[in-house]
Write a structure and sequence with these properties.
Strand content of chain A: under 5%
Number of domains of chain B: 1
Number of helices of chain B: 7
Oligomer: heterodimer
Shape of chain A: globular
Order of helices and strands of chain A: HHHHHHHHHHHH
Distance between the termini of chain A: 14 Å
CATH class of chain A: Mainly Alpha
Largest sheet of chain B: 4 strands, mixed
Protein name (chain B): 4Fe-4S dicluster domain-containing protein
Number of helices of chain A: 12
Domain 4Fe-4S ferredoxin-type (chain B): 6-35, 49-82, 83-113
Largest interface: A-B, 41 and 37 residues
Pfam family, one (chain B): Fer4_4
CATH topology of chain A: Formate dehydrogenase/DMSO reductase fold
Keywords (chain B): 4Fe-4S, Iron, Iron-sulfur, Metal-binding
InterPro entries (chain B): 4Fe4S_Fe-S-bd (IPR017896), 4Fe4S_Fe_S_CS (IPR017900), ET_IronSulfur_Cluster-Binding (IPR050954)
Largest sheet of chain A: none
Strand content of chain B: 15-25%
Chain lengths: 302, 210
């Protein structure tokens, strides 16, 4: 195995951080801004992406021992990774400036938020493109599917981590962002569909990629990674959060006279359901990155 | 690109799987324990009801369109003037992107963190010598030379072989510059045994049975 759990952690943290920042920005834009949520997103975003980037540095042993070599990182702009370094760096700068403005002046310029959200999207997509550009060697790393799948998962995990913290810090705010309720139901479905597409495309890889593609899919659905895939990703990461979100949506609908946010916030079991669901999404988000990195087999695996 | 393009042609019909190339390469390049710049994969193959031994030497294909060079963020992996793919260890940070991108999986990481692989014995060819694996090959299965020079031995043999000379997994789009004669016959035959990866029988004493 060329890359391992450390890189999976990076892919997860970068996606989650990007999603958290984007949600934080969006939560602050409405007529009734959710300021705690915005603050949480603006803190989790750059911190998660920075920690993830640090993991990359730690994994690059030769660079770690000769740090000056990191200055070569943007010399080959044909390399997706060089662009990734630029994207991560610029995102971190913008996100940290935005956070500083939020903490000092209590508000942030919308145009800067907008740039940050655009960069967050690039960060999330880049984690997929990074693997996708090695797709000629690893059929599971499909350039057409992975970037979209990782963006969707970044949105899910970013929302989950911010919602988790907001449920604990300022429960009343959660219901204020209408986007969240729909996202909790739509994103798991989209993510599940994209994973099915990824597995189908990989299993049907043509020519010299056929054997490795089929073996990679088999490793996931019935091989050494089957338990992690079905239990960790499908059940805990997709089905459980989706089911809990359905239950909460029903409860909200049953008490329409109260605002949904207040309803869920003051309902102890509703809050527990939400926390469990959010934690499930985070577990699933990590499992997705871990499985995509670990279960992939190279075309030359004989 | 420059007008020189070094390549290799391996005639599988005369390779006997002796692994002299594997050993010569280790001696020449002092590759680390368990790492190989070239090796021979051997297995029992069935052709027309007979059992024969299939031998398939492997090494870096020094591709004309190498994914490893494209993905390398620092420019440590590069194409040299002679068309070969080389690694400048002074620029390598050990991100392993090249190892991931190579369909042939011929790259490995050194203890020090840098990535290494077959250089086509760059230190020898620049002095007018053949790569160690070629010069040691007991059946002259391996041929080496300038693919862009129509008068070189390798170009003549490639021209004579026509469609029969092929690279590994050409559909990966890397334009490999290691050609094989008899590749379709070798890979097309029924595989009757596990693949023995020449040289990889080496074990540490604590791992194997005493």
């Amino acid at each position: 195995m060329i890359w391992d759990a450390l890189i999976a952690c990076y892919l997860f943290l970068a996606g989650m951080g990007a999603g958290a920042f984007a949600l934080g920005a969006i939560a602050g834009w409405g007529k009734d801004p959710a300021l705690t949520m915005k603050k949480v997103g603006f803190i989790v975003g750059p911190v998660a992406v920075a920690v993830g980037t640090l993991l990359l540095v730690v994994d690059a042993h030769a660079g770690l021992q000769n740090p000056l070599r990191f200055f070569y990182l943007i010399t080959n702009l044909n390399s997706v990774m060089a662009w990734g370094v630029i994207i991560l760096s610029v995102f971190l700068v913008v996100a940290v400036i935005d956070l500083a403005l939020l903490l000092v002046k209590k508000e942030t310029p919308k145009w800067l938020d907008g740039i940050g959200v655009a960069l967050a999207l690039c960060v999330a997509a880049y984690t997929g493109v990074l693997l996708g550009d090695a797709g000629a060697a690893f059929p599971l790393w499909n350039m057409a599917v992975l970037p979209v799948l990782f963006v969707v998962s970044a949105a899910s995990t970013g929302i989950a981590v911010v919602a988790l913290a907001t449920h604990l810090l300022a429960p009343a705010e959660v219901g204020r962002v209408a986007l969240l309720k729909r996202a909790g139901l739509v994103l798991p479905l989209v993510e599940g569909a994209l994973v099915i597409v990824l597995l189908a495309v990989t299993a049907g890889a043509p020519g010299s990629a056929a054997a490795a593609g089929q073996a990679s899919v088999a490793a996931l659905v019935s091989g050494p990674y089957a338990v992690a895939f079905w239990l960790g990703f499908v059940v805990v990461g997709l089905a459980l959060p989706f089911a809990l979100e359905l239950v909460r949506a029903r409860k909200g609908a049953a008490a329409p006279e109260r605002s949904v946010g207040a309803d869920v916030a003051h309902d102890g079991s509703g809050k527990t359901l939400a926390l469990v669901g959010d934690a499930g999404v985070l577990v699933g988000g990590f499992m997705l990155r871990y499985l995509v990195v670990m279960a992939a087999l190279p075309v030359a695996f004989m | 690109m420059s007008d020189k393009r070094l390549g290799m042609l391996i005639d599988l019909s005369v390779c006997i799987g002796c692994n002299a190339c594997t050993v010569a390469c280790r001696q020449e390049n002092e590759t680390p324990l368990t790492k190989f710049n070239t090796w021979v994969e051997s297995w029992d193959a069935g052709i027309d009801g007979r059992v024969t031994r299939a031998n398939l030497p492997k090494l870096c294909n020094h591709c004309a369109n190498p994914a490893c060079v494209k993905v390398c963020p620092t420019g440590a992996s590069y194409q040299a003037e002679d068309g070969t793919v080389q690694v400048d260890p002074e620029r390598c940070i050990g991100c392993k992107y090249c190892m991931a991108a190579c369909p042939y999986q011929v790259r490995y990481q050194l203890e020090s963190g840098e990535v290494d692989k077959c250089t086509f014995c760059h230190h020898r060819t620049t002095e007018g010598l053949l790569p160690a694996c070629v010069s040691t090959c007991v059946t002259t299965s391996r041929m080496f030379g300038d693919l862009n020079d129509p008068d070189s031995d390798i170009s003549k043999k490639l021209a004579a072989a026509g469609d029969k000379a092929k690279g590994l997994m050409e559909d990966r789009g890397m334009e490999p510059r290691v050609y094989y004669i008899g590749l379709d016959e070798t890979l097309g035959a029924e595989q009757l045994s596990a693949v023995h990866k020449g040289g990889n029988v080496l074990r540490r004493r604590e791992e194997g049975n005493a």
